[in-house]
Predict the 3D structure of the following.
Amino acid sequence: MAFPQSFLDELLARSDIVDVVGSYVQLTRKGTNLFGLCPFHSEKTGSFSVAPDKQMYYCFGCKKGGGVVNFIMEEENLSFPDAVRFLAKRAGMEVPEEQGDRDAGRRRARLLELNREAARFYYQLLQQPEGRAVRDYLERRQIRKATAVNFGMGASLNAWDVLLTAMMKKGYTKTELLDAGLVVQNKKGGLYDKFRNRLMLPVIDTRGDVVAFGSRVLDQSEPKYMNSSETPIYSKRRVLYGLNLAKKSKRPNIILCEGNLDIVTLHQAGFDNAVASMGTALTVEQTRLLSRFTKELVLCYDNDNAGKTATERALQILNGSEFSVKVLQLPRRQTENGELVKQDADDFIKFQGPNAFERLLRGSENGIEFRMAQVAAKYDLNSDEARVAYCAEISSLLASLPGAVEREVYSNRAAELAHITPDAMKVEVQRARKRLTARENRAELRRELNPAAKNQPQERSLRYNNIRSAMAEEGVLRLLLLDASLFPAELPLTEEQFSSPLLGKVFSSFWQAKCEGRDVSLAALSGALSAEEMNHMAAVCQKPESVQRGKQALEDYIRVIHTEYQRRTGGATDPLLAATEKYKDKKGEKRNV
């Protein structure tokens, strides 16, 4: 075990899940539990539940759950040891670490220090004569020195091993440089700097750590943009460039753009609420991160086909979320020869100015307006045939809106555009709504009529081979968690008798805790179970179970498990059957199992 069990028990006792989760999520009490908007996925209606008596959380929407350590692992993107350290620091406890965990923590700290040293190195090069080419590039891009300093910009030289040599002189190893993604290994095993002859943009997370680097080439060579690869301290799905600055903005929303330099230009122009994803479309993890700082998002992607696709994907992720979402569409720019060309936020600010961008920002349309415009653009609405096709597609889109008022407002707009009566469009939307509801009802009915599928774990690797036994196994675990006094005096089951390896492992952990006089808690297994396993166990604990006839229910569950075990093993003798049926040994005393 990475940490002494006594330390983990005390840490859990000092880290009340309501207090910890409450510092991230606004919770409201409903009965014995507390509810709020899930921090792990976008939603408008709170399906995130915290059970103080079990010290567990569970989201009925995204099906994630666990104890307080799991929550910090998920919310702060930390490993189990780092989440324990995080909570220990919060609780004012000293962490008694074993060598392996000390090494892992030291490795992470070294990589963060290395990235910070590399950022300083690139920054210093930008100020020196060798950084002239990058300074000239910044001047051409109209990026002021104060802005470059604010973003910690730097320069990488047109050389093979400048950073490698400098960092090794500071005591960092080749392995650490490889792990941080700062150097690359060739086929012969030689190392060279990954970033060369580039403007360097350190990626700083919301805790102030340099976790990665973005870069832009100075000429027309490829690739134009190059970012750090995934490392032990960096996941591009969980980071947004510029959020470390944007989180301090006084503006009421956050603007999502595509490129790092778009963010730099917007901040310089006074829009200090702009952020960008690191070479990916918007991810669920990024929306969770954004939800800590705002409930209003403005999508400002490029106005080419790729940008429109990215906008549509982002709207799908944000559909039904707690975010108020708007779309800012940048108009095409007319060149001197009359050609219309696409432009990004950086181009728009340079050619039109901050005031024009502010007007666009104030007039940005909401997500449904953007999607309606995308549908309308497909059809020539002067054609009767095209209008019929348009009405069929737009009615399906409008039918998906949750609110009746929303559906009516936008149905009227669609009707006006298609040159038909509002009543006719309303009928089409109602028909589409009925079809949508019918499909959802049929899917729900199929699930209800297939209890075996309904009771299967969401994670395929955890699927049950014997549903009858697994349901009894779940019942045993729930009863023991609800009432520890139900534990039999003697071991009633072995781990091998469980049809589900996961449920058997959890039972063995519970029995060990009982034998050692510790509290039986699922939250205490955070370090022993994977995220998928803990999510499933949290779901198991949410199922209803009564302890009114707990002793009899436990015996019934155990009897089912024994019966199913004998069937699986071809009727082999059950080594613990005598224990559960209270057989006695030859001396008339209970068998000591």
The chain is about 50% helix and 10% strand. Residues 578-593 have pLDDT under 50 and may be disordered.
